[in-house]
Specification:
The protein has a single domain, classed as 2,3-Dihydroxybiphenyl 1,2-Dioxygenase, domain 1. The protein is built from two helices and eight strands. It has helices at 17-28, 89-98; strands spanning 11-14, 31-37, 43-50, 53-59, 81-85, 102-109, 115-120, 126-130.
Length: 139
């Protein structure tokens, strides 16, 4: 049976996209689906997957699309957060900490179900990670 694929794919821009790809894969467990390099150690476009989800990312640029985006530092803080559903929040938390993630919300049981935490990546984006799966309903 084919795994359900996400129909909403967040898109992020990084000042150092090659380093961001390495960090996202090593610390958060993403896998490279496609990476298209640009000139001067930039990333024109990348697709990283985790579970049935995907993010797209690239290097900060002043192109038609890039002009509409701001980095967390430019916007005075976090501009948005991405949630990742995982099977084992404790193991993921340990991996993220070992990978240098700045933990912004310690791992905890959630009042709405599941267990999770939140971390900040090296360029300021916040990632919420947990076992709560909104697609699964109980009862």
């Amino acid at each position: 049976m084919q795994q359900v694929k996400s129909t909403i794919i967040p898109s992020l821009r990084y000042r150092n996209a090659p380093a961001a790809i390495e960090w996202l894969c090593s610390a958060l467990g993403f896998t490279r689906h496609a990476v298209y390099e640009g000139p001067d150690n930039t990333i024109a476009h990348a697709q990283l997957t985790i579970g049935g989800g995907m993010i797209m990312l690239g290097s900060v640029s002043d192109n038609e699309f890039g002009r509409h985006m701001r980095q967390p530092g430019q916007a005075g803080g976090v501009t948005h957060a991405v949630y990742i559903v995982v099977a084992d929040a404790n193991a993921h938390y340990a991996r993220a900490k070992a990978g240098g993630a700045e933990i912004v919300r310690e791992i905890q049981d959630e009042s709405y179900g599941g267990r999770g935490y939140a971390c900040r990546d090296p360029e300021g984006y916040v990632w919420s990670v947990g076992t709560y799966d909104p697609w699964v309903t109980e009862g």
